[in-house]
Amino acid sequence: MRLDFYSAEGVESYSLQNPGISDLVDSPHSSDQAEQLLSQRKMKPVHFEWEDLEPHIVSTVELNVTRGD
Question: How far apart are CA 67 and CA 49, in angstroms?
Fold first, then answer.
């Protein structure tokens, strides 16, 4: 589910994902969507600008792709 608000100041957007299922109970994401969002009737903000997204990044993966000819 996604909810968007459009105004002269820009777009404000929120999303709600279905909870995932994980066999890894020690994973920080095994039930975080259900516990922190669904059961609280909350939606999470969608970040469009890097400055808004960057403070929420917990890990990154850099992929280096080489093309074999």
Answer: 31
- Structure-token pair, residue 42: 């909350």
From 17, 38, 18, 35, select the one nearest 27 (Cα to Cα): 35
pLDDT tens digits, 17-45? 665 556 677 776 666 666 666 677 777 88
Question: Tell me, what DSSP letter sits at residue 19?
Answer: P
User: Which stretches does DSSP call E strand in 1-69?
Assistant: 2-7, 10-15, 44-46
CA distance 16 to 36: 11
Parse the chain into domains and list their residue ranges: 2-56
57, 37, 38: which is closest to 47 by C-alpha? 57
